[in-house]
């Protein structure tokens, strides 16, 4: 399969470029969940530079050391180094720095955490190598890893021997929908939204499913092809981070199926909320969950108005349509499950993803669109009502409220009046606050609503098409 084009990552590349051009040594930590494109980012950065790259494995520390020696001998074209039976890490890095000339040398250790996993002393060993061999040289070291908890423990936490040595750190996230069209330049926006609901912004998933042209073909591949890695992907993602995935799976399934408040999850799983806190934290650290509170909360960290959202569209889809029906899929009824998913996915999944896309649009484009900025952007809800988009500007005493409608019919005055009604329920700001409204629609707007928007500067209509 031809390699997929490299999309976006401008901020990450600029950080790496800045570290490379700095007149000092650099130690850059790159981490993020699996499949998100960390290694591809590094390859894109080093492709025209003097770089040595090594990928660690889950083998023993000695096996990794021997593989490092072999790879280094090839890189340096060093026959004697090939013949030596064993060398310490210190000796190999001393040999490596001898090859440095006026041009900065780049050294990459990918999946760095595996070496430290198999030898707890390795972060201390590498700290000594950095302090005594590398820090004073014209070198840029990149330590990259996918097991987020281990990378933080070994390189970023206060207790790590490497704490304070890094000169930059990059958390690689999913590609935003804003850049998704670069993967499918010929696609209409409506089709892009549906495909994004399956793949999210994870480059590996996009690459795997791109050969299937239609949305239906992509959905069928996930549900029906038991030989595809996607069929078992969440098992793989969780098993690399946690020893026992059972409760984590239960939490993710419960959230995917619509029970998003801690109390609802607690009731469903028959576990006390206090006993679920650890699972929420681990899943947040893995970038699989995000904790949300109403944007109007003054102290969100202490707020009890909490919901959890799965950050990965593919994982959310899998826990909605694959995991709960795995018995039927395994017993040859995958076509029926695929048909069921296809029938419900727009209402249950795509429309929800559309809300996230619309909120992202506001974050990235509202100032360019209106000249107004908002300090906090999210959503709002109480016991009985919710508003898809809510943003506040405390300096100007201004609030933005919006709804997203992913349906076949046009949005009209009824939806606008309902949004205005709900705005009176939002207790925020001082008397006389400024209010503006935004409506997102898949299928456009009624003539009456468009006429109103032409005369009301506080009403914006957006069709993401």
From TrEMBL:
Gene3D superfamilies: P-loop containing nucleotide triphosphate hydrolases (3.40.50.300). Residues 318-408 form the DUF234 domain. InterPro entries: ATPase_dom, DUF234, P-loop_NTPase, Restrct_endonuc-II-like, WH_DNA-bd_sf. It comes from the Bacteria. Pfam families: ATPase_2 (PF01637), DUF234 (PF03008). Transmembrane segments: none annotated. The keyword Nucleotide-binding applies. One of its GO terms (molecular function) is ATP binding. The keyword Nucleotide-binding applies. Residues 6-209 form the ATPase domain. Keywords: ATP-binding, Nucleotide-binding. SUPFAM superfamilies: P-loop containing nucleoside triphosphate hydrolases, Restriction endonuclease-like, Winged helix' DNA-binding domain. Coiled coil: none annotated. PANTHER family: ATPASE. This is ATP-binding protein. It comes from Peptoclostridium acidaminophilum DSM 3953.
């Amino acid at each position: 399969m031809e390699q997929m084009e490299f999309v976006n990552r401008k901020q990450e590349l600029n950080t790496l470029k800045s570290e490379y051009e700095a007149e000092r040594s650099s130690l850059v930590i790159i981490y993020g969940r699996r499949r998100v494109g960390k290694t591809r980012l590094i390859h894109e950065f080093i492709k025209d530079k003097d770089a040595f790259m090594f990928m660690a494995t889950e083998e023993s520390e000695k096996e990794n050391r021997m593989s490092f020696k072999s790879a280094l001998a090839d890189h340096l074209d060093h026959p004697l180094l090939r013949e030596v039976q064993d060398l310490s890490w210190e000796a190999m890095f001393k040999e490596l720095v001898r090859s440095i000339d006026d041009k900065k040398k780049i050294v990459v250790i990918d999946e760095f955490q595996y070496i430290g996993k198999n030898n707890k002393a390795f972060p201390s060993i590498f700290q000594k190598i950095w302090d005594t061999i590398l820090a004073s040289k014209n070198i840029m070291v990149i330590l990259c890893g996918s097991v987020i908890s281990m990378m933080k423990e070994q390189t970023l936490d206060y207790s790590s021997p490497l704490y304070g040595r890094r000169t930059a750190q990059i958390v690689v996230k999913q590609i935003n929908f804003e850049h998704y069209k670069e993967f499918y330049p010929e696609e209409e926006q409506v089709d892009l939204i549906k495909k994004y609901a399956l793949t999210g912004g994870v480059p590996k998933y996009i690459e795997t499913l791109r050969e299937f042209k239609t949305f239906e073909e992509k959905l069928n591949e996930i549900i029906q092809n038991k030989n595809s890695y996607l069929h078992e992907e969440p098992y793989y993602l969780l098993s690399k981070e946690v020893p026992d995935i059972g409760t984590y799976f239960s939490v993710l399934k419960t959230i995917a199926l619509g029970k998003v408040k801690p109390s609802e999850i607690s009731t469903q799983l028959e576990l006390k909320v206090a006993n679920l806190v650890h699972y929420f934290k681990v899943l947040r650290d893995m970038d699989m969950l995000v904790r949300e509170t109403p944007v109007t909360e003054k102290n969100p960290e202490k707020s009890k108005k909490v919901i959890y959202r799965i950050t990965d569209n593919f994982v959310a889809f899998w826990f909605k349509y694959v995991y709960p029906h795995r018995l039927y899929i395994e017993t040859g009824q995958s076509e029926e499950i695929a048909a069921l998913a296809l029938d419900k996915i727009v209402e249950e999944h795509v429309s929800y993803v559309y809300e996230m896309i619309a909120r992202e649009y506001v974050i990235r484009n509202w100032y360019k669109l209106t000249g107004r900025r908002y300090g906090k952007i999210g959503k709002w809800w109480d016991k009985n009502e919710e508003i898809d988009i809510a943003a506040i500007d405390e300096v100007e005493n201004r609030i933005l409220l919006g709804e997203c409608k992913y349906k076949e019919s046009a949005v009209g005055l009824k939806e606008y009046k309902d949004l205005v009604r709900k705005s009176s329920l939002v207790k925020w700001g001082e008397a006389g606050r400024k209010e503006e409204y935004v409506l997102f629609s898949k299928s456009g707007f009624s003539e009456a609503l468009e006429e109103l928007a032409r005369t009301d500067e506080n009403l914006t209509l957006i069709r993401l098409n």
